[in-house]
Each structure stands twice: as C-alpha cells, then as structure tokens.
Amino acid sequence: MAVSRFCPPRKSCHDWIGPPDKHSNLQPVHFYIPENESPLEQKLRELRQETQERNQQFWANQNLTFLKEKEEFIDSRLKAKGLELRAESGQKATLNAEEMADFYKEFLSKNFRKHMYCNRDWYKRNLAITFFMGKVALERIWNKLRLKQKKTSN
Amino acid sequence: MNIIAKRSASWVGGCVWYLERRALQESPRRFLHLLRNVNQQWVTFQHFNFLRHMYVTQLNRSFNQQIKPKPEPVPSPFLEKASLDEAKTEIYKMRPLSPASLSLSRKPNEKESIELEPTPVIEGSIAVGTETKEEKQWKEMKLRVDDLPGILARLSKIKLTALVVSTTSAGFALAPAPFDWPCFLLTFVGTGLASCAANSINQFFEVPFDSNMNRTKNRPLVRGQISPLLAVSFAACCAVPGVALLTWGVNPLTGALGLFNIFLYTCCYTPLKRISIANTWVGAVVGAIPPLMGWTAATGSLDAGAFLLGGILYSWQFPHFNALSWGLREDYSRGGYCMMSVTHPDLCRRVALRHCLALVAMSAAAPALDVTTWTFPVIALPINLYISYLGFRFYRDADRKSSRKLFFCSLWHLPLFLLLMLTCKRPAAQGDAGGPQS
C-alpha cells in the first residue's frame, strides 16, 4: 500500500479522509491522535487502521486481478476468433457484454471462497469498531461529566 | 571545539526558527517572495508534473473508478498555491530538526548549514508538486449540522423509502375499510421510519462493497461524511419509534410485520447478496411486505386480498431487478455479488418473463378476490401485455437494450397498475366489518 504523504493542518483535531484509491476505490482515512489519547481510544484507532489496511490490500488486489484476467480473457477470445487485437484506428478491440458473460461468471465463482472469508472478517471488524466507538463516546461523556463535577465542587 | 560546534548548531537552529517565524507571521505573499528565487527554476518542472498527473488520471479513469479531477483553468494560480502548500510542508519537514541532532565536528556542520535551507525545499518541491492536487481532495471528517439532513436522507435512501411508503399507502387504500386518516398517517410515518432504519443498516454493512460500484460509491458512509456509530444510532432512533408507532398506534400485527421486514432486509437479504442468488427471492418478499402492512393497518387482519397485493409487488420485483442487474454484471462480478444475471443468465431472463405473466394472472384474480371490479383486468390489459412483451424480448434477445427497456417500463408500470387498481376498487358492501383496530 502506498503510504500517503498527506499531512493535515496543525490545528485540526479530526480525522481526514482522502480521495478514493485508484486501485481499491476505498477512501483512506488519516487518523488524528489526540495528546491525551486513552488506551481505549488507542485500541479503537489501531483497529480502524488495521481494518483499513486489510481492506485496501484485499480490494486493490481484487481489482487488479480482475483487470488482468479480463484482458487475458479478451485476448484469448479474440485470438480464438482470429481477430486482430487492435482495429485499424488503433482502438483496442473489445468483446460485447454477452461475450464477457462467461468471464464474469467464471471470475465470480473463482473468487467465491475469498469473498466468503473477507465478508466474515469485515462484518466482525465493522461491528467491533462500532462497538468500540460507542464505548469511547461513553468514556468521553463520563470524563466530561466528572470534570464538570470537579469544577463545580471546587 | 565544543563551543564552535555549539555556536554553529545554535546558528542553524536559529535559522530554522527564524524561517518558521517568518512563515507563520508574515502574509503568504511575502513568504512566496522569499522562496521565489528557488521556485522559479522549478516552475516548468512542476507544470510538467501537473500535466503528467492529469494525463495519467485521465488514462486511469477508463479502468478505475475515480473522482473526476477538477480541471484547472489556468496553470499559474495553481502553481502559486502549490508553492504556498510546499511552503507549509517545508515548515513541517524542518520542524523536527534540533541542534542536538546535528553532528559535533565543524566541517560537516558548515556543509549542513549551507545545504539545510535549499535541500528540503528542493526535494520538497518535486515531491509535493504532484501531490498538492491530491492533498486538496482530502476532507476533514467533521460533521456539520447543516449537512446532516442531506446526509441522513441519503443514508436512509429517502427515494426508496418514499416508494416503499407509497406501496404501503396503496395497500391501506385498497383494503376494504373506510379510510381512516389518523390511522393512515400513523402507518405512513411508522413504515417510513422502519424503512429508513433498514436502509441505514444496509449501508452500514456494505461500505467497502459500495465503494467499488459506480451506483453506490457516493453514499455517506463510503465518503466518510458520517461515522458508523452515528449511522447505527440513527437507525436505532428510527426503528424503535417506527415499530412502536406501528405496534401501539396501529396494531400489533402491522408492528410485527414491520419488525420482521427490517430483520429480513438487514440480516437476511444484505448478507445473502454475497452468498447465494436466493437473495433476489428474499428481496422480493421484502418488497411485498409493505403493501401487506398497509392492508393490515386498515383491516387488522391478513386475508386473501392482502396476499394478492403482496403477490403483485413480489412478482413486480423480478422484471424490475433482473432487468436492472443485466447491465451491472461487471460490477457484480468484480465486487463479489451473487446475482442471477452473472451466474445463471438464462434463469434470470426466464424468471423475469415468468413474473410478467404472473402479473397478468394476478390482475385477473383481483376481481375474483373482491379487491377490484371486473373492469380492472380489462383496463390494465394494455400495460400488462406491454410489460410481458418487453419481458419476452428480454428473454429472447438477452441484450442491454432489451434489459433497459424492461427496467424503465417497470418504473412506470407499477404506479400506473396500482392507480388503476385504486380506481377500480370494489365498493364496500353493506355491513362490512372492516375498520382500523388498535
């Protein structure tokens, strides 16, 4: 995964989200690390970071493999037909959707198992992240209330 | 020796500090003036990089989905801004330097002190020139209250919700009971809230998959406009009052159907989309339940008429969805969605045709079940025959053109069909029990 050279402005205390990655189509998030980050917040951030990296890796690989195998399929079909790979105008010859249907079917069934694993993993992580987000939100509210109480008692 | 080293170190540190202070205190223009001498040699290089980046972006667009890069009208303002951005990054790069990190001997210090200013700027210019365009596309993940209604509307798929609520209203209106406005409004709002909740959870589950499909890549969770926690909270805040409203404001049967439908859509249909083609049949049931809910809200019970209406919506889903999915086969294949159009194309078209014909049959059953008069199947015949014809063309031709025709026909066929049903509604007989039950 290409490490983004993005650096958020100093005064920002939020996460930043970037444009879709050109291979995975996923939008990377640059996580903000507060100075007084609690262990729970750190755990959440690390989980989100790890999930982001796994997703990035999976989808970048998936999309690149798709494009590669699609090209190979088109080439082999065109060769079988005895057609040129490029028309006279220099445009790349393509197959229509009906001819591509065999490829789509084959690609889907080949990757079925991979998707099953990825789905299970994603659902677990997504739920865990949301659960921890809830815990962190409660922790912050609790800390704010405690601070207020201290101030009023002082 | 040590004193000289310390003095050099502090001089270098002072230089760095001075540049920082100037950058922060002075206006951007004056700072640009400071860097201009260095930048001028890099103007053409940056321009080349910018053009190269644009070319690569355009090339990649045909293969990958990308946010369309905004065309830069004039190169020079861009370069000026690029210089400013560079300047900012230079400050960040130079900041970590401390006198302690510098070596103690004199000569290397002199070299470093000379190279210190230009080197970071030069390297920075090359590296940053191409990425400032990307940098501009980074957005702060800060929720603005003004944006919230729009974001929540898209999260809850408000247009689809509107369609669902209108089928519920049709069910309510077609039920053999006097039209009760308070009950209707409660059903309307309750079903709407339940639909919002279900749609939000669906989007919550599908973020990485939605990113990879053109149709869904602009959804709020994909773009980070809302956090998953907020999305789930919103769903809960819709589901609880929605189901409560249906259960206690209308009747428990309607509430139970609403809750069941949320569960069916979020926990059965959504995960099933990536496991088996059976998802389409489950999805058709999800679409059939809202008119059922409208009927039970008005009459308090599920009878033959309710099931007929449900059956009509169930059958309608097939020509609608199968035709739509025909044009999305590439996205489904790449994204890992198990759809008939990809795995069983013949079945896909056969099922679409079959259900077009089922719609014809059900129009004839409507008067038999006392839902409508016998006028209805007669006046509905032209549109039913037309959609069946398009279904047949799709079955035979199996191409994008016929699939699009069938899909667009399904969009106007349903509302017209329901409207005709309403106009031909069987008038209530004397002594009919029907009425809203709480």
UniProtKB/TrEMBL annotation, chain A:
The keyword Membrane applies. It is found in: Mitochondrion inner membrane. Keywords: Membrane, Mitochondrion, Mitochondrion inner membrane, Transit peptide. InterPro entries: COA8. The keyword Transcription does not apply. It is a peripheral membrane protein. Belongs to the COA8 family. PANTHER family: APOPTOGENIC PROTEIN 1, MITOCHONDRIAL, CYTOCHROME C OXIDASE ASSEMBLY FACTOR 8. This is Cytochrome c oxidase assembly factor 8. It comes from Balaenoptera acutorostrata. The gene is LOC114238731.
TrEMBL record, chain B:
The keyword Membrane applies. It is found in: Mitochondrion membrane. Its EC number is 2.5.1.-. It is a multi-pass membrane protein. The chain crosses the membrane at residues 160-179, 185-205, 226-247, 253-272, 279-298, 374-394, 406-423. Its main location: mitochondrion. Pfam families: UbiA. Keywords: Heme biosynthesis, Membrane, Mitochondrion, Transferase, Transit peptide, Transmembrane, Transmembrane helix. The keyword Zinc does not apply. InterPro entries: Protohaem_IX_farnesylTrfase, Protohaem_IX_farnesylTrfase_mt, UbiA_prenyltransferase, UbiA_prenylTrfase_CS, UbiA_sf. Converts protoheme IX and farnesyl diphosphate to heme O. Belongs to the ubiA prenyltransferase family. This is Protoheme IX farnesyltransferase, mitochondrial.
